[in-house]
Amino acid sequence: MSRYFSLFIASLFATVPALSWASGAAAPPMLDLTSHWVGYTAIAIFVIAYTLVIAEERLHMRKSKPVLIAAGIIWALIALIYAQQDDTAFHQTAEIMIRHNLLEYAELFLFLLAAMTYINTMGERGIFDALRSWLVSQGFSLRIIFWLTGLLAFCISPIADNLTTALLMATVVMAVGGSNHKFVAIGCVNIVVAANAGGAFSPFGDITTLMVWQKGVVNFTEFFNLFIPSLVNWLIPAVIMSLSLEKGQPDAMQGDMGKLKPGAFVVVGLFILTITMAVSAHNFLHLPPVIGMMTGLGFLKVFGYFLKMHDKRLAGSFDAHSQPALQDGTENQKAPFDIFKQVEHAEWDTLIFFYGIILSVGGLGTIGYLTMGSELLYGDLGPTTANILIGIISAIVDNIPVMFAVLTMMPDMDLGQWLLVTLTAGVGGSLLSIGSAAGVAVMGQARGIYTFFAHLKWIWAIALGYGASIWVHLWLNADKFGEVVAAMPAAH
Prior knowledge:
By secondary structure, the chain is mainly alpha-helical. About 65% of the residues lie in helices and about 0% in strands. The chain is built from 21 helices and no strands. Helix 10 (about 225-240) packs antiparallel against helix 21 (about 460-475). The two termini are about 35 Å apart.
């Protein structure tokens, strides 16, 4: 899935009950370190590390590096304080809490690894290239391309994730728009908004929705209550932006259609089967969704074996004299398909970054800061105001650490409020180009054309969609407010 597959990524179902609690044992004793020097030091370390993450593009330092160090230092400080307590009951608290964090990370890591491998394999088989080539070759008008790419971004992102979808559709807009920078900029804004909106009503559309689903506060089918609000979130700014587009046809395109490799549709079918197994494992067997995803990865690996054997047989049917020579004189030998190459191409920096974020925020939760934040937001402001504010904050800080913090706080909310915070955290990042992984990635792809200020020009239209989507949810899903959600207990 791409470089940024959720730049600020999936972190921390953290500081919730430890492994032993799952079996009914009592929670480990906790200390309130929010006013202790360890607490202040941990906050400073995390802020410094996250600042380096935000400055990744300028510093050219991978985002996983600072958070890995921050996580290790934060937990070392916590463990040091607990080890100094006279009461031996405190001595194992840090170990219990960090083991729970590691379990949460392992589930998320394996889930995303399976999904990334599937997406990479579909890309290698030519699925995305074929779609892009077809769109470019059809001779659609600029307005039709604007609406088609937005609609496809909205429809594909619930399955393929908002980042991958945004990159794919942005490539189409750039290929069609060419030197028409105004069209490319508006088309990219439309794609980012559509991809984020489409990802908000599906457990697979964004890291935040995946976290909410795995946490169990919203069931799989309940996410689809957000379909209409998400659609409104995209349509309102899309209609406004489309009015500024000039009529006309794009420049003629040259080139052949992208060709699908053998087994392309089988991979798509296996991916759909894998998603079905993940949902079934969670809903019917009460198993973690990652079990279904990893089983599906096994199916893909077995199919990859047959693809490799097919490629070897095909290569063996040609002798050296029948192989067409390339311009440099070498033979056009094609390497057999290797499924482990697709695993290798997963975004490892992001996956490791998840570890650093989950453990860092988990450490802050163990110190007591997340409980403090929960009381401030949800106690003083109320859940509706707090959840709307969460979306605005996610446009600046990023939605993943914000949503993980909410899940760690685990405020006492009904289903309607959990759906509200899922919606706002998912689409709030569209307010600014830096507010979502999709926006950041597309800025890199359309560098100099789709910029922070090109997006900021339309913030008023995007804000109208944001407010309208919240109003539609409050009205359309009014019956969901008041429904009790069986939330997991918080750490404090």
